[in-house]
Write a structure and sequence with these properties.
The protein is of the alpha+beta class. It is about 45% helix and about 25% strand. The protein has six helices and ten strands, in the order ααβααβαββββββββα. It has helices at about 1-10, 15-35, 70-95, 100-140, 150-160, 255-275; strands at about 65-70, 145-150, 175-180, 185-190, 195-205, 205-215, 220-230, 240, 245, 250-255. A six-stranded antiparallel beta sheet has the order 5-4-3-2-9-10, sandwiched between helices. Strands 1, 6, 7 and 8 form a four-stranded antiparallel beta sheet that branches. Helix 1 runs antiparallel to helix 2 (about 15-35). It starts with a helix and ends with a helix.
Length: about 280
């Protein structure tokens, strides 16, 4: 668009070429950044179960870390944002003519306003909505609900675990979901336009084992509960990792005692179901 505007304004071909090159450089870092950040769940797919190896996520005493950085994503994201900021500042401080400087200042101001809006409005509202959803479900399922972080990996594994999962019911904009469980099923709930949706239901009879696991969530590897499902002879292993979190001025991975208590409750329900069968 900038190049077209310059062409219509009668600017020389050299300025047009330079402008298009600057626009290409400025557009590449944010595009790469959003791809690597892995925040949104656009087009949830049924990807294969890909358990993360635990060896690289252990503390010195052998326990599993609550969270660890995904350094490849962090470094690439920092590089992308730094390149974008540096290019924008260069355009503002040494503009070819005043109109470009004004456009750069307007762009920077817009980006700052968007960041403030997300930090002060969007994220607090999203936190309130998921806490309200969890409170509603907790009233219906006492001591049998918890909030999980969503990512492309988490959503795809859950969708694969439930063959009847309606992928259109997943919300692309929310970053957390709520899980409930009873003697028969594990259910995953998401919100679409403020309306709760039961996006997946997995029978406890399909759960073969419950063990610690690690899920890829945006910039971090987050500790969770790995539910391995019953697979046929010779079939690839299937399962899903649910990374539970609690809220305290933001969402954080469960502490060791809380995670152990939640795992114990799930294991108890699974064993009761196995005994009944």
């Amino acid at each position: 668009m900038g190049g077209v505007a310059l062409m219509i304004g009668g600017v020389s071909d050299e300025w047009l070429f330079n402008t298009m090159g600057v626009l290409a450089v400025l557009s590449f870092p944010p595009l790469m950044y959003w791809q690597l950040r892995d925040r949104r769940n656009i087009g949830v797919r049924r990807w294969k179960y890909r358990p993360e190896r635990l060896a690289g996520h252990l503390n010195w005493d052998g326990s599993l870390r609550a969270a660890s950085w995904r350094w490849g994503v962090v470094v690439a994201s920092v590089f992308s944002v730094s390149a974008l900021v540096a290019a924008g500042l260069a355009l503002i401080l040494t503009p070819p003519f005043p109109a470009i400087q004004f456009a750069g200042l307007f762009l920077v101001a817009t980006l700052v306003a968007i960041l403030i809006f997300y930090a002060a409005v969007i994220y607090p509202l999203a936190d309130r909505d998921v806490l309200r959803l969890q409170a509603q479900l907790e009233a219906e399922h006492p001591r049998s609900s918890f909030i999980i972080l969503k990512s492309a990996q988490v959503c795809s594994e859950i969708a694969s675990a439930d063959p009847e999962s309606v992928l259109a019911s997943w919300s692309d904009n929310s970053v957390r979901a709520v899980v409930t469980f009873d003697g028969d099923h594990i259910r995953v709930w998401d919100q679409l336009w403020g309306e709760r949706k039961n996006v997946a239901t997995i029978s406890f009879s399909r759960v073969e084992s419950i063990r610690p696991g690690v899920a890829r969530v945006r910039w971090r590897f987050v500790r969770g509960i790995d539910l391995q499902l019953v697979s046929g002879a010779g079939a690839a292993k299937t399962g899903m990792v649910l990374p539970p979190v609690f809220f305290r001025r933001g969402f954080h991975p469960l502490s060791d005692p809380d995670l152990a208590a939640l795992s114990s409750r799930l294991e108890s329900v699974r064993r009761r179901g196995s005994t009944a069968r």
